Give the backbone structure.
Amino acid sequence: MNLVLLQIGGMIRYEALMQFRRRMLILIAAFFTTGMIILGSGMITTPSNGDILDVEIDGNQITTIYRQPNGELLYSHHMLPNDTEFPRWLADADIPMIHDTWHLLLTYMPGLILLAVAIPPLLTEIIPLDARFKMTELIWTKPLSKAAFLAGKVLSVWFGFAGVMAVAAVILFVFARTQFRTLDAWLYIRYWIVLILPLTFVVSGYSVLLGGLTRSRRASLFIGLAVLPLALWTFMGSAAMTSMMNFLYPMPGTPAYESYEATAAGMLMSVLTGLMPYVLLLIAIWVGMWAILRVRDA
Amino acid sequence: MTWHGRRYIFAWRRAVMAVGWWLLPIGLVGMFFFGLMAQARDPIGQMIGLSAVAAVGALIGGVQASLILAPADDAAFEIILAAPRPLAMILIERLIVVFVMNAAIAAVGAVVFDLAYPSGETVIDQLARWFPPFTAMVGLGMTIAIVSRKSGMGALLAILLVGSMLFGGFAFLGLFDWAWTLHLFLPVDQFSAEQVFINRTLLTAIGAALIAYSFSLLRNHESLLAAHISA
């Protein structure tokens, strides 16, 4: 057991060095950060009515109060359909902070598509590179099990991503602070830990493992293209559907929460629940690749 | 044939294999599928609308172009450089293969799309929509693959550019006054014939310029071998 852990640790260190030299993870994180800043600059705009100040609720009538660009207050009235569960706690909440935080998290939706699309074409080459540099035969002469080999490859990418994405999170938070009045930093951190990092891990896991089906770097790009729909499907199932259902609260079928904290926690829980099938799929792919490597070696 | 003549011989079969010929039938299915979606009044199908042939064609063109030549992906690239056959021959033969196969698929795709979603557009109309973004994406895919030395980078940029123009093109048009000149899939019913002509000419010119730039990059063998990095 100790030997296996040492082997995995050694692989992680070696692969992390190789990935740093190839700049792939840095490139993906930089690509995501730049894309988010460009998207943010275009999407983060003051509503045409002005800045939202407060929300008042009277029966089924909602009154949203805006401060217009000329400084005057605007009262916008809106009647709720009878079958809609509206979060009545909004009447007592810090509306500017909630509005800005959710607006920021919503801008992550197109940004996460960029991330999900960028990972497969660039990361499926990780296992085929061993064959490209004639290392495969040498690796299999070592007392290294197939399970340890795959774990080393995948974990090296995950550790690398954890590092570069932490830097991206800090840069994007600083950018967001320049664009918004107030933000809920705790929700932002939880959003990264619960959604963005796991989504990155799952999609990069698919890419690294399925890339092992081939031995050529060129063919690995084709596998990367084949993984793209799977990556987008994972994004749709885990991030888009669950987050949107909770952010766009007046949608029918959305649970009614009793406070801002409960809404944030509910959104994060639904993201975790939404991710579970894809985590199981990743485990299935992992086991399948382990079996393929065993059969190939036999 | 003399030895000098052999230097300029074509390797068509290898070229067809290298650029991933099987992407084309998948693209054809995609064109038909988007036609069916538009006919069924699906929101995504309607958003793509008549640009389906151009979009799928440009996407596949960009991906195939990124596979034409990527120094880091080709094993023993030093030997290819040392061979008497000029490196440019690889680009020429694979470019011909990409253009000819894609033109054929776009023409068939236009017919198939019209069967699924009758719009009154002729095959010539669809080919006129397809050619400018296709050329631009081929130029982009080729250039990025050679500069970055990896086909993955060229393919990724082609996918992102086509996807963002297809689904966010309306936002791009709203952001800048000049956006119509560079929009890959300009909605022709919202712009004058002169604007559409300028847009298509500009996209074709950008694609041709990038293709020409790719050829010029082949002269710098040190850069192709990443000697400046490993030194």
User: Anything to note?
Assistant: Chain A is about 70% helix and 5% strand.
